[in-house]
Amino acid sequence: MCKTERKYQIDTEENRVFLAEVRKELFDFGHKFPSERGSSWYLGDDGTPWKDRSRETYVSCRMAHVYSLGVLLGHEGSEALVDAALRGITGELHDTKNGGWYAGLTADGKILPNKQCYAHAFVILAATSGILAGRPGAEALLQEALEVYDRYFWNEEEGLSCDTWNTEFTVLEDYRGLNANMHTVEAFLAVADVAGKDEYRVRAGRIIQKVTGWASDNGWRIPEHFTEKWVPQLEYNKDRPDDPFKPYGATPGHGIEWARLIAQWALSTFKDDAEALERYIAVSEHLYCRAVEDGWNCDGAPGIVYTTDWNGKPIVHDRMHWTLAEAINTSAILYHQTGNRRYADDYAQFMEYLDNTVLDHVNGSWFHQMDSGNQVMGTVWPGKPDIYHALQATLIPYCAADTSVAPAVKNGKMK
How far apart are CA 162 and CA 192, in angstroms? Predict the structure, then answer.
């Protein structure tokens, strides 16, 4: 095997070096994100802020999270970047009148309406990572974020989270969705790992059990959109199939991401129950394999399509960078858990595609959206707004799979 081939192979020193190089370039790329008051600018193609765009809470939280990882990994300047992001989250993005966090702010400082479960889940994640990085105010932020989340978003009876309130927290939308619940699982697992609050791991499991049931009843293609009574709406947004957060149909990238989170939850929950662990690893395999079969190289070119219909036929052929990041993560975890070479082979393909097509070797970071011919486009994700998915994909393949990424890095739980 030549050196270039080894660069793409999991568990080789060459692959670890490659990911470390990619990680450093990502950290360097994101340095200009803080606005004057801390919230994150939308980053353009070369990392220069696009100041005519909104500064959104979830992006600011992602940047707090990734530069907390930077602190733990010794990346120069990370402490100041985390502190800036936390200043934005606890300052201009925080609603001191009604509680919680705005969706964001427009370029001219106006409030983006509504209170999003999605954004609040990322506030929790940012706080947990900030605690591990030893940043001032992170513990108080986590306490407040959990209080707000538990009051407005978590439904104990249903074992699921709602999606969107109005800004005043007086009117709850009827829509229910799994994207916010997926990142809630991520956040809850981090709370359990960092703060020792295992009731949040239990909650994550309740969400996972619902998702597993819906997926298994639907050919392992996960319904994304629901009514307020949690009835699947399979035709939702059929007229807007490329919506960035609520697209029509199945989203292979989410199937892959759920597979990773389910494996993490199961490995942390069933340490002494081999039968249950095996059952949920099998669920992860079903989700991953269905998504890769439907989405990867399905139209004659490498890449994972954004969406398919309920029979697995591609609808939106665009390739989003985050789907590749999740494919890298999950193929690595499943290989390490099962020893099945299929996952190692997948990982190598994903790495080669990353290096040859998705990495921007000129301006840095990863191209965020490409068409079916792998040409860069920007109809859904122009520029390169944040580095969260890509940065995690340089770490998760070698992190302990039973632990959230920041605690794994903090505690040296790396392969």
Answer: 21
Sign of CA pseudo-dihedral 31, 36, 38, 42: negative
Tokens of 268: 């942390």
341, amino acid identity? R
Q: How far apart are CA 111 and CA 146, in angstroms?
A: 22
- Count of C-beta atoms within a 10 Å radius of residue 94: 17
DSSP state of 343: H
The pLDDT of 145-157, averaged and rounded, is 98
Task: Report yes or no on whether pTM surpasses 0.90.
Answer: yes
Q: At residue 248, what are phi and psi to the nearest 5 degrees?
A: -70, 145
Distance CA 145, CA 149 (A): 6
Angle at 347 (CA atoms; ends 341, 352), nearest 5 degrees: 130
| CA–CA separation, 129 and 110 (whole Å) | 28
Helices 252-269 and 274-295, axial angle in degrees (round to 10):
170
Give the residue from 358, 366, 218 showing the smallest Cα distance to 294: 218
Q: Which residues, 6+ apart, have CB-to-CB distance to 166 below 8 Å? A: 113, 114, 115
168-200 pLDDT, tens per residue?
Answer: 999 999 999 999 999 999 999 999 999 999 999
Report strand pairing: 49-50 vs 42-43: antiparallel
Active-site residues, by number, are 254, 389
Annotate 282-314 with DSSP letters as a single string. Answer: HHHHHHHHHHHHHHBTTTSSSSBEEEE-TTS-E
- Sheet containing 305-308: order of strands: 305-308, 314-320, 369-370
Please spell the DSSP secondary structure of 202-261, one letter per residue.
HHHHHHHHHHHHHHHTTTTPPP-EE-TT--B-TTTTTT-TT-SSS-SSB-HHHHHHHHHH
